[in-house]
Amino acid sequence: MLAAICLTRRSDFIHGIKVRGNAEFLLRTSESLTLLEALPEFETIRHHLRIIQQGRRSGMKAWAEKPTFIVGKATWRHSMLWYAGAIAHDAYHAKLYLDAKGDHDGTEPDADAWTGAEAEKKCLAFQRQVLLALDADETMIGYIENCAQNPTYQGRNKGWRSWLDYLRRWW
Q1: Contact in structure between 19 and 30 (CB atoms under 8 Å)
Q2: Which of 33, 96, 129, 164 could form a disulfide with 114 if both were Cys (CB 3.0 to 4.6 A apart)?
Q3: Within the chain, which residues score under 70 in pLDDT?
């Protein structure tokens, strides 16, 4: 019976963001959002991220009417600190998308405005800033800095191959 309760999908508003998933996911997300809530950067996160949803792999639907961060198990089951950094990172993708859309009078922006190497560097910089504010250790900060040196680590961001790269994600 307990396993059935843990697997039941539900949703709740946590610190102003709708969270959808099983009870364990809601708890882990709540813990990570609580870490973030004390930071000044949380206003950027809350303003640009409307939904956090449990999924098979992680990715940001910045173009959705309610920008949605879909989170894979490898991310949300990692440390609360790492998960908090991932939330910050993907919220920044949504910020870049919405800023670019505003600059184009509401028309769809180019993918490079919010994805791709330069956008990834900006998202990693925001993630690093948040992790430093949360007193992340040198190993975690070093990992983020290493990713910034290779901002295409997540694969392609254009065309059908980008979809295939997304499907290969383990996180």
Answers
A1: yes
A2: 96
A3: 1-7, 104, 153-171
